[in-house]
Amino acid sequence: MNCNNQLCLTRLNKGEPIIQADPDSWDSRFTLNPTALYLERSPHNDELIKGLLDKHSIDDPLLENGVVVIFYRGIPIDVPGLPSCRSAVGLSVFTPDLHFIKKFDHPVLKPSDDPMEYDYNGVEDQRITRIGDTFYLLYCGFVTYPNGDYKVQVCMAVSEDLISWQKLGPVKGDVNVWPNKDAVLLPEPVDGHYIMMHRPCAGKQSDFSISLAISDSPTGVWKDCGMIMKAVQHPLYIESWVGMGSTPINLGNNIYLADYHTGNYLASGARDYFANYALLDFNKFDIAHPEKIVEWRTEAILFPETDYEVESPWPHEQRLNCVFPCGSYEYKGDIYLIYGGADAYVLAARLNKEELLHHNEELLSSDSRHVWAADYLREFYTRS
User: Taking the CA atoms of the chain, what radius of gyration do you get in angstroms?
Assistant: First the structure.
């Protein structure tokens, strides 16, 4: 258990992966950066659960509280004739308290077979949102061309059953003017607008910030409204940037709780990522000033410390310390955060929602809208 300024977060499964590479399956190298969706029991959801778990009876006591579906980025060992580290999307099913039920033996969303298509080199870092009866998967489509040029774009796929997905290609509008990734959709429209938060890769890396876009439809056309959050600089780092995490949790009355990541470089060239939370109040949404929605931010709620967060099997020149949130859901008053560890594993943690909200009410003064939950960052690197 981690407790920072009285805010306690528990790593689940003893800090070990809930999903990891299977040397005998398609995801034989790495599994990382998961998104998650909780399906509570209901007549409609029961049909979805039956489709996911065709060998389980819906009356199985294991399913009495519904299921959580986790879509993760899977990377196989290199295949001759195909790009290295080429990602696809895998699917696993768990109980809401993360007891394993099933892992599909094939990817549910794969890169294109056409070397000139927008996601030939990989389907990466997906986020899922349910709007009505349709599931929307935003992901980063990556392609490199024979002349060395490349494109990184926000792309979309849709599904009615969570297994069969239809690709819609790069999202329409102006959000892909720059290389772009880390995009999520809100599950409800605001003042008639559907909301996408995304992370254009514009300028130098320390300029990479979270932006907001609006549309009349979940599938676009999208109009970018500008930045809502940039990195809060910590004296430990020479360069920091941010990107969205999970689909934000609806607290009611157009207010959302959103996790996001901060990436950092140290002077040594080492890199790390930690997880943060922000409160977004869309009652204050102004198209000309989208940053007004950000009520408060708590930095470094989850920081890389365990073996599966700091010991990366990737051949990085410098040590990579990484927790990378992409999935979350609420269950029995707790937030379950599903995240990538060390760019190679799927991990999970739990924290109490009311404790998180109360924590910020107490710590934030009227003239400060962010607080460091983990001021031990410098001590961590000193003792490392």
Answer: 20
Residue showing tokens 């709007």: 131
The residue behind tokens 């696809």 is 88
d(CA 111, CA 120): 5
Grouping H, G, I as helix, E, B as strand and the rest as coil, residue 384 is: coil
pLDDT in tens, 41-86: 999 999 999 999 998 999 999 999 999 999 999 999 999 999 999 9
Which tokens hold the place of 313? Answer: 């099997």
Residues in contact with 72: Cβ distance below 8 Å, sequence separation at least 6, in sequence order: 19, 27, 31, 32, 33, 34, 35, 89, 90, 91, 92, 346
CA distance 362 to 283: 22
Provide CB contacts within 8 A for 141, sequence distance 6+: 118, 119, 122, 123, 124, 151, 152, 153, 154, 155, 170
Q: Full-prediction pTM beyond 0.85?
A: yes
Q: In this predicted model, what pLDDT tens digit does every residue of 75-127 receive, in sequence order?
A: 999 999 999 999 999 999 999 999 999 999 999 999 999 999 999 999 999 99
Q: Given pLDDT bands bounded at 50, 70 and 90, which one contains residue 380?
A: very low
Query: Measured between alpha carbons, how far is 117 from 135 in angstroms, rounded to an integer?
Result: 23
Q: Which of 357, 343, 332, 126 is nearest to 245 (CA)?
A: 126
Question: What residues have CB less than 8 Å from 180, skipping those under 6 apart?
Answer: 140, 152, 153, 154, 198, 199, 200, 201
Of 289, 294, 178, 312, nearest in space to 244 by CA: 294
The token pair at 379 is 């001590």
CB 9 within 8 A of CB 350: yes
Burial class from Cβ neighbours inside 10 Å (0-12, 13-18, 19+) for residue 42 reads: exposed
The candidate with the shortest Cα–Cα distance to 70, out of 345, 369, 319, is 345
Q: How far apart are CA 349 and CA 97, in angstroms?
A: 11
